[in-house]
Amino acid sequence: MVVDLDIDEAERGEYTVVSVGGEIDVYTAPVLRERLTEVLDRGVAKIVVDLSQVQFLDSTGLGVLVVAMRRVEAADGSMVVVCDRPHILKVFEITGLSTWFDIRSEFDEQ
Questions:
Q1: pLDDT class for 79, splitting at 50, 70, 90?
Q2: Residue among 99, 91, 105, 46 at smallest CA distance from 72
Q3: Residue 110 clears pLDDT 90, i.e. is over it
Q4: Residue among 12, 11, 98, 92 nearest 54 (CA)
Q5: From CA 50, how far away is CA 8, in angstroms rounded?
Q6: For a Cys-Cys bond, which of 21, 35, 48, 105 suits 17, CB 3.0-4.6 Å?
Q7: What whole-number distance in Å separates Cα of residue 77 and Cα of residue 60?
Q8: In the chain, where are the structural domains located?
Q9: 87 touches 60 (CB < 8 A)
Q10: Helices (H) then strands (E): counts for the chain
Q11: What single DSSP character describes residue 105?
Q12: 5-104 topology per CATH
């Protein structure tokens, strides 16, 4: 099986930016979960998850983001989700998570 998910990591100021591209679904969500877990296990408290290149996000992928957000909150950190795709934003809105996540159309360190 081919996993259609690209994940890159970079440092921007105080934030670790995890850029994701492709489809986040039941098949690829474990790959994203593993990468976010690795980042958070290193003690990163400020993280950006850039979904601007994601074409599809299902409930499994959303669950991975929820778990990461809970870990970040428990560490008194902050997590920003970058997304400007209407169909991905709708997933956050219909689940009621759009008010819980700090969702921005682009990331600008403040």
A1: very high
A2: 46
A3: no
A4: 92
A5: 10
A6: 48
A7: 23
A8: 5-104
A9: no
A10: 3, 5
A11: S
A12: Transcription Regulator spoIIAA (3.30.750)
